[in-house]
Every structure is written in structure tokens, then in C-alpha cells.
Amino acid sequence: MLSKVQQFSSLQGALDALFGSGTKVVQAQYTAGGDINEARRLTLNNGMPVFMKANAKKNLAFFTAEAAGLAAIAHTGTISVPRVLCCGTDDAQGGCSFLLMEFLESGKRRADYWEALGRQLAAMHRADPSAWTKGGRYGFVQDNYIGASVQENSSRDHWVSFFRDCRLKPQLAWADRYFDAADKRNAARLLERIPELLAEPAYPSLLHGDLWSGNVMPGHDGCAWLIDPAVYVGHAEADLAMTELFGGFSPRFYAAYKEAAPLQEGYDRRKDLYNLYHMLNHLNLFGRSYLGAVRRIMGEYV
């Protein structure tokens, strides 16, 4: 079972506990950190850089969930993630929640960057994930988030029912306000067909859950580091499908992954169905510009 990240009731209290009494922030620079949270590089008076994400005080759960996901990936010992320092809330300046992590310095990709990432991801997918579910084979020890959307991780014994009930059903329900009568019929038909469209995996895998190119970066060592996870235990090909969604990774990545962990027959027929989940989430978060993509994918399967 994953240990809980330390929580503090103030940023200063966290800094004092982590780095010693009298630690101060001498510079705070805004930096890239996604669309949901404010992200800053904090430089401390001891010269150390720290990465901080901040959000409204009520959204502390964003950060406890992210910390749990990073800890799960780190526990596999297969691929690098930033080290979580703590999270907490602070009442200063109207109140906020925060997550402190090591600051990841971006480096130059080493020559075998993509091949190594393929092998590392395959190893992560093959690691024993049984510690991260609550009774069933699929799910996670807690619900978390995909972007700003709640991601339900209730345990299931079967992948097909998990993906139908905990991934597609909630997103389709939220998207109902965008759907016309034909869309609603297609959504209902799609859910009925899930058992014949998807396959049970040979083994359950710990997934990053939001694995597009923006959530992979070269670290100071030239190797790939994973950030901003939406972790759960599922079918490895759902992670692989998302890598193809927004431009794809290098062909060398896919060749190395498939050599280390050959894909089940029929992956190419299933990958758009996995990515429907992400397109629905974009529709629900960002509006109807994603409706055409949702309709196209649903049309493939009904």
C-alpha cells in the first residue's frame, strides 16, 4: 500500500520541516505546469530550486492524487518521475493548496532516448500492480483526476467492465448536453457493444493514464521522465493508444516497446476506442470543438 504524502497547513511550515527553520523563498518564477494549476520555480535561500504547483484551497485533492500516482510509478523502479516533497494548504493571500516537488531540470535527450523509453514503459506495464487496487484487479486505491475531471477508480475484476463503467459511462453522461438524438443512440449502442469490442489483457498493468508527449520530458540525465499522471491499473494498450493521439512518439519508441512487450492481436482496432475517453474528456472540459472527433470515433464502433 502506498504511504501518504506529508501534508502541512502552511507553505512556510513545509519549508521549515523539509529544509530547516528559517528557510525562505527568495525568488518565485512562473513556469509551465499545465492548464489547471499555477506552477512556479521557487528558489530557496540555500540556493535549492523547488517546483510548486498551486490551486484553490478546496482543490488539495488534485495534489494528493498526483502525489499518489507519482509514488506508484516510482515504486515500480522502472522509469523516472519527480520526487514529491509534500503537499498542503496555506491561508495567505486568499488561501491555496500546493504541491512541492523536486525541480526537474530539462536536459538534452541521449541518443537512445526513445528506445529506452519504450523499454522502460514496457517494464512499468509488466510490474506487479496488485498493491494499487482495492480488492479487484483493475482500478486504483483512490479516485483521481484526468485534467480537471474526476476519474473514478472503483475496483473491478474485469478490464472490459472497468473501462465501460469507470471510463466511458461517466464521460458520456457528462457529454449528454452536447449530444443530439443520434449521438445519444450511438452512445447507448456503444456501451452495449463494449464486451465485444475490447479484450481482456494477459495481465493488469499500472498505467500513467495521461500519456501524451506533453507529459514526458528529458531530464538532466538525458532520459525520459514522466510527469502529471492520472494513474490506474488497466490494460497497457490504453497507455500506448494515448501516445498516438496527439502526434505520436518516435517510431523507435514503438519498435522498442513492442519488442519488450508484444501487443495483443487487434490493438489497431481498439486504440481509437481507448482514445474516445480522452476526446470525451476534452469535449467536457473545453467545449464542442471536440464534438466532431467524438462523433467520428463513436461512428467507428456502432
Record field, number of beta strands: 12
The percent range for strand residues is 15-25%
DSSP helix fraction: 40-55%
Main sheet properties: 6 strands, mixed
Average pLDDT reading: 95
Radius of gyration: 20 Å
What string, H for helix and E for strand, traces the elements in order? EHEEEHEEHEEHHEEEEHHHH
Strand neighbour order, sheet with most strands:
1-5-6-4-3-2
Indicate the structural class.
Answer: alpha+beta
Shape: globular
Count of alpha and pi helical runs: 9
Low-pLDDT runs of 5+ residues are none
Distance between the termini: 40 Å
Explain what the structure shows:
This protein has 302 residues and is α+β, with helices and mostly antiparallel strands. Helices cover 40% and strands 18% of the residues. It is built from nine helices and twelve strands. The strands form four sheets. A six-stranded mixed sheet has the order 1-5-6-4-3-2. A two-stranded antiparallel ribbon has the order 7-8. Strand 3 (38-44) and strand 4 form a beta hairpin. The longest helix has 20 residues, at 267-286. The relative contact order is 0.13. The model has no long low-confidence stretch (mean pLDDT 95).
